[in-house]
Amino acid sequence: MRLYRPLLLALALSLLLHLGVLLSGHLPHAASLPEPAKLQPLSVAMQAMTLAPEAGPVPAAAPSSGLVAVPAAHTPGVKRHHRARVAHRADAASAPVAEAPPAAKDMLAAATEAPAAKDAPATTEPSPAAPPAEQQANGNSEPAAPPPQADDSSALEAKGAAKTRRFPDNSRVDYQIYYGSLMAGHGEISWQRSGANYTLDARLTPIIGPHLRYQSRGSVGKRGLTPLAYQAWRGDSERESARFDWSANTLAYGDHGDKQAELAPGTQDILSLGYQLALTGGSLLPPQQRITTGKKVYDYPLAPGGETRYPPDHGTLRVVVFRAKNGDDVTEFWLAPDFANLPVRILRIDKDKTLDQRARRIDINGKTVWSLSENP
Hints:
Layout: H1 5-24, E1 44-46, E2 67-69, H2 80-93, H3 115-119, H4 133-138, H5 154-158, E3 170-179, E4 182-194, E5 197-206, E6 212-221, E7 224-234, E8 237-245, E9 250-254, E10 259-262, E11 268-269, H6 272-280, E12 289-292, E13 297-300, E14 302-310, E15 317-326, E16 329-336, E17 342-349, E18 354-364, E19 367-371
Parallel strand pairs: 11-12
Antiparallel strand pairs: 1-2, 3-4, 3-18, 4-5, 5-6, 6-7, 7-8, 8-9, 9-10, 12-13, 14-15, 15-16, 16-17, 17-18, 18-19
């Protein structure tokens, strides 16, 4: 047994050394991600989701589409209202079944200021034939989505753009987590809406180290998400948090909630931001988006910049990428318009590390609608 003691001691020291490097956030340069894929220009515009039920029977787990075709050239001799009626009949005749995601063009977005983020209509008015039953049950009289702007593009109407799809009441996205280019664990983000309230729960299980959990709670209405509380845990211990006092326009944050900042309109926490983009299609972005991680507060310019496919380089799922950049800090949200704009990749880069969450499965209203194993 004495012969093995030096070997066991060396193995223990090596394990402790690697664990210390991993938890410190300082990995070798070789572990960094390759350069981001080049983005193609947007060929479609993001579309906002609605919280109100759609008119007519809709399969519970049918994937929602958040795409609107980019305006095409005007066709002479065809009246606008006639084209809209024809497009409406065509949409009704070709409605997708529950198992078949709607066909559209793929997409991605990066970090340049884009007029589409300001000009995109917030939503399309739902049919009056089906008043929102959920509003009646919960006593919420707030409209689910704002009416279309008066200057909505006539070209979109001419293309017969589909009405806004309903955002799911619950969803779950399972992720693989990469630290640089190293597989570091797995996680999930669950979305749950009950009337005018929402809960977002993110759980990360690293290969080495304690479990991590993040939760965002607040209200949801015609302008998307309004966070009220954000909390982080490391194992069973509470860590950084944020409290949103909208009546006093004050944000309290930090490990002990002892720091304060102004609560600018539209402020989001780092967990709610991706779902605010998904719900609104990015149409309500301020020039500088205020974000809190619970530890810090940032003001980022955030806009769609292009389109690509997921998984990177060889995937078939169309995505639009929103990027927030401030110095060396970069946060990207890759949204899947075929599946209610849900984020399929969340990439965070700072001067010390890269954390990359890549989706491997999407569940909507209790049913798996996409998985990496079936779409490699």
